[in-house]
Amino acid sequence: MKDFVQTVNSTMKKEKNKIKPFTFKIDIVNKTLSNPDSHIVRKLSSMKGQYLDETSYDEMIKKEDTVLYEVYEKLVPEMEGELIQGLSIVHPGKVGKEYFMTKGHFHSVLETAELYFCLKGHGYMMMETPEGDWSAEELLPYTASYVPGRWAHRSINVGNEDLLMLFVYPAHAGHNYATIETKGFRKLIIEDNGNPKIIDNPKWK
Ligand code: F6R
Ligand code: MN
pTM higher than 0.70, yes or no? Predict the structure, then answer.
């Protein structure tokens, strides 16, 4: 099976007038949310062409279509004024020297921002704008990383354990994956003598 997106709680059809205040618990031991509305599981096969070392990618995928990351969300009406929130879990590992990472995306409504709060693990938030600015913000437990509007973002796990983050973003933001799938990010993070190192992406278009 390729990636899957499971809508867990379909009874909560998200109409503006149906939404009620709610509280949820994040379980960092079992790595889940209480009553998630969706669970996304992304595997190696959904990242074709994204990793620099294509030989290592091909060798790995021949053995197993490894799960790279998972996302649990609490869904709300996808309209301005509401906020979607959830838990992202990027597993530890590498393809060649490059750490496991999310696909990364711009928001379809480009000017919408996002907040990530790191609960566990060690990572980087890699970001870039269509104008050519880039930034890699380090993520450690209890650090918050702000992704401003216009900035594409990708989470990268540079540690040896799961990278757990709470995220919150405007419910009308939408996701544009196509630009990153085609162009890649300008910068990559690889392991160099046991440490993360930011390098130029030679395949960036
Ligand atoms: C939502 C958001 C996160 C990501 C998650 C997985 O706007 O940025 O919830 O969706 O970190 O990454 P992608 O969506 O790039 O596969
Ligand atoms: Mn986002």
Answer: yes
Nearest CA owner, ligand 1 atom 1? 169
CA of residue 54 to ligand 1 center, whole Å: 23
Q: Write phi, then psi, for 3 (nearest 5 degrees).
A: -55, 155
Ligand 1 binding pocket, CB closer than 6 Å: 42, 71, 86, 88, 102-105, 114, 153, 155, 167, 169, 173, 175
CA of 82 to the centre of ligand 1 (A): 17
- Structural domain of 73: 4-200
Which of 82, 102, 125, when mutated, tests ligand 1's pocket best, judged by the most ligand atoms within 8 Å of its CB?
102
For residues 49 and 83, give the distance between their C-alpha atoms in angstroms, rounded to a whole number. Answer: 32
Tokens representing 205? 């278009």
**Blockwise average pLDDT, block size 10, the chain, 205 residues:** 56 65 95 94 96 97 98 95 97 98 98 98 98 97 98 98 98 97 97 97 91
Instruction: Please count the structural domains in the chain.
Output: 1
Q: How far apart are CA 169 and CA 89, in angstroms?
A: 17
Q: Give domain status of residue 46, yes or no.
A: yes
